[in-house]
Design brief:
four-stranded parallel beta sheet
Length: 304
């Protein structure tokens, strides 16, 4: 078979599903390539992670006998077959992005069920182990872990140990649930060579548990990739006021964390929210002008 692949979101971040499909078809002796408009294909896979707000759909190719669409951007009920899900990815199709870097999941699902997140609906209201690290890592110097909530998994101590034992630089790109931090798992996290560490403070109603976890981590952390202790995402334009947004940002800064503003439904956000994001996320401006009310985007060029 001749297989064509289309990354609808673009080629700026590796699409794990397409890498696994490529590996599976190549193992069967099929020819796999990025789709283009000439020639004929027996099957074309179109994969899309983001919805129409961020990634507009593209026309279906006309030169394919069969077209299969998948990914969250096309719905929450499509999944890879088990034999494809657990194959070692074909990193070569994104050779520049995956140079000496492995991407994958050790767990799936999340018990939180946040209203702005599709993970619980798509992967289940619980975090379960789905793989060992050796399934998708073979000695690369860098690991990008894409798990939505690894600390909620009953097997998380074992999995954190696998990451530490790899001796690779690890980026847990979806962050860690600071509400689940304990002395024991912080000790395990300290053993990992972390490239990045992220937490989140999304709901004001969870402030007590969030601050408890962040204070505990600050008292025990030995690896500090950013700021004094790490980065904390702050969701805005969802269910918080500007006063509550600033409370979170100032509190995190005073604790030694780097707050990072995330905007829900950014295309429809108020201008003040977008100015808040520019002020907070540009570290030079954030340090130069500590009071948001004194920030003037017209006179302070956020790009420099």
């Amino acid at each position: 078979m001749k297989i064509g692949l289309i990354d609808v979101d673009g080629h700026h971040y590796p699409n794990l599903a397409l890498m696994k499909l490529s590996a599976w078809h190549k193992a069967r002796g099929d020819t796999v390539e990025w789709w283009w408009g000439w020639g004929q294909y027996d099957r074309v896979y179109m994969s899309k992670v983001f919805d129409e707000t961020y990634t507009p759909d593209i026309p279906e190719p006309l030169n394919a006998k069969e077209i299969i669409k998948g990914g969250t951007g096309y719905g929450l009920d499509n999944k890879l077959p088990e034999e494809v899900e657990h194959i070692y990815p074909d990193y070569s199709i994104y050779h520049e992005l995956t140079k000496d870097t492995a991407y994958g999941f050790l767990t799936r699902g999340c018990p939180r069920g946040c209203h702005f997140c599709v993970v619980a609906e798509k992967e289940g209201r619980g975090s379960v182990k789905v793989a060992n690290l050796s399934e998708w890592w073979r000695g690369q110097r860098n690991i990008v872990l894409m798990d939505p909530n690894i600390l909620a998994c009953p097997d998380h101590m074992e999995l954190l140990g696998q990451l530490a034992d790899s001796k690779a630089w690890v980026d847990i790109n979806q962050g860690l649930d600071c509400r689940l931090l304990t002395e024991q798992n912080i000790e395990a996290i300290n053993r990992i060579k972390l490239k990045e560490i992220h937490f989140a403070w999304d709901y004001m109603k969870e402030s007590e548990s969030v601050l408890r976890g962040l204070k505990l981590y600050a008292s025990l952390a030995t690896r500090k990739p950013h700021g004094q202790y790490g980065t904390v995402f702050c969701l805005t334009n969802y269910d918080t006021t500007m006063e509550e947004n600033l409370y979170r940002i100032y509190t995190l800064r005073d604790m030694g964390y780097d707050p990072y503003v995330m905007i829900y439904d950014k295309p429809h956000a108020q201008r003040e929210i977008k100015h808040l994001q520019r002020w907070c996320n540009n570290r030079m401006i954030f340090k130069k002008e500590p009071d948001f009310h004194n920030y003037n985007p017209k006179t302070m060029d956020w790009r420099h």
